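@channel sequence for tomorrow's demo:
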Amino acid sequence: MSAHAAQRNPVALTAEKLRRQTAQEAEAAFEAAFRENWPRLVATLYRLVGEGAEAEDLALEAFWRLHRNPLMLSDGAGLRGWLYRVATNLGLNALRARGRRQRYEEQAGSLDLQESRADDPAAEVERRQERLRVRQGLAHIKPRSAQLLLLRHSGFSYAEIAAALGVAPASVGALLARAEKEFEERYRKLE
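structure tokens (generated this afternoon):
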């Protein structure tokens, strides 16, 4: 609404002024809540997760959720409880994720050790060199070609590859053939 139209309509002018005032009050309330709770919230999360940067990230996420939920700002007594509940839930979720990730990494590591125990150290060195050449070859071809090859090697179907790369499913076969040729030429140069 233009300023001229608002001057002619006092109700619209009052509504606009009220919206601006409410937005300013909400922003001021958020800033006050942030200043008041940030140090203690970060300290609480630090005690929970044990890492300063992660504690700050989690606290920022909690405040972001508060910012997206401005109704909590009007509830002075419930605000702190809500904020700490959200933050501790985020911290607990981070700990669970860390535990799962650690278990997966340990399982993958033990599987890798079981599978890679080579009776022949020379064969193991050869396999490592082969992997290095493959990585170098992928790094020196077109990014889309490398993506095609990686997705296909990871077991993706043509339809899944097409969806991931935004190409027509009918063209995936031809694109893969070109990518394989490009990779093979680069790989042979590295040998």
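heads up for whoever presents: Residues 93 and 99 are 10 Å apart (CA to CA).
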